[in-house]
Amino acid sequence: MATNTISQIKISVLDLAIVRDGGNPADTFKNSLDLAQKVEKWGYNRFWLAEHHNMQGIASTATVVLIGHIAAGTSTLRVGSGGIMLPNHAPLIVAEQFGTLATLFPDRIDLGLGRAPGTDQFTAAALKRDEHAAMEFPSNVEELQRYLSEGNKNGRVRAIPGEGLDIPIWILGSSTDSAYLAASLGLPYAFASHFAPAQLHNALAIYRRNFKPSAQLAAPYVIACVNVIAADTDYEADKLATSFKKLFLGIITGNRQQLKAPEEPNEDFMDPMEEAALQQMIQYTFIGGPEKIKKEIESFIEITQIDELMVASAVYEHEARLHSYEILGKLNKE
Asked: How far is Cα 222 from Cα 228, in angstroms, rounded to an integer?
């Protein structure tokens, strides 16, 4: 039977560790842990953090450290990376770091891998990133798999801890290249449709059509990440979403800013040309009260046939962000 209702799939969180205007990273980390503890109670499946660098409004630079912090403050929630930007790191280091996490928190750690630097070209150079590293992403994923495998016990280079541990590897992507790779390796696939919607349907079709079963995964498994801003009423959600829209507009224009307080969502809120450009980037963004959110998300699930929905919510006030996830959690239990 087709999966087409929100109560039939797992839901998860992508926390971008956003530093809001007037706040600081310490506030962000406190709020991230509080969110993780709340969504664990509300039945969410996993909580992922993303590696970014040199961004004033995002504090998840030391992603592995934050994953450990969140895992230590929760007990059942899966915690992981969405993702680790593998070209920035030696595969051995990633294997050792996640081997340490999986030793501390058994059967709870996910390792999502991306091929982008997660930053600008100058910071990438400061990270000592090889300009050809992205091209080596497939071979680096396989090297990392080798370090984590039970069969590497006789290897000259070993990841201890890490070797032989159950650490699910995910391929993250925003294009069709990642879909081919995830399919060829028989790995689960997470698509970044929350900011790169254009290739979503093509990528999912390619992944499912070309999937080869592996020791980790017998059949295709897909997560799609979307933006959700839910509130008790459509108007409240529209107002909360003004912060999110300004944030993403800054990404498009190159004028990156911290998350600003919400404004009245009137006709003068945003230039029509800017909003048209923004809508292309945030096509899979669901804003509204419970009824509207449920209808739109279930349509998305029916069309994409995803196995799991991952949700990012850029909301200025922490309590309002918690409530947005709470609303979605209740819809998932109906």
From this structure: 18
pLDDT at 1 over 50: no
pLDDT tens-place string over residues 268-282? 777 888 888 888 889
The token pair that represents 254 in the structure block? 């190159």
Distance from C-alpha of 223 to C-alpha of 306, rounded to nearest angstrom: 6
CATH code, 35: 3.20.20.30
Q: What is the pLDDT of residues 60-101, one digit of tens each?
A: 999 999 999 999 999 999 999 998 999 889 999 999 999 999
Domain containing residue 34:
6-225+303-312
> Does residue 86 sit within a domain?
yes
- Please report where in the chains the tokens 């689960």 appear, as a residue: 188
User: Which whole-number Å values give the CA distances from 328 to 38, 92, 137, in the listed order?
Assistant: 12, 38, 35
The one-letter amino acid code at 319 reads E
Q: Say how far apart CA 202 and CA 196 lie, in whole Å.
A: 12
Instruction: Show the tokens assigned to 151.
Output: 């069969």
Distance, in Å, from the CA atom of 166 to the CA atom of 62, rounded to the nearest integer, reads: 23
Q: Which two tokens stand for residue 320?
A: 């309002």
Q: Which residue's structure tokens are 């999937």?
A: 211
Structure tokens at 329: 């959690």
CA–CA distance from 98 to each of 154, 193, 260 (Å)? Answer: 20, 26, 34
Rg from Cα positions in the chain:
19
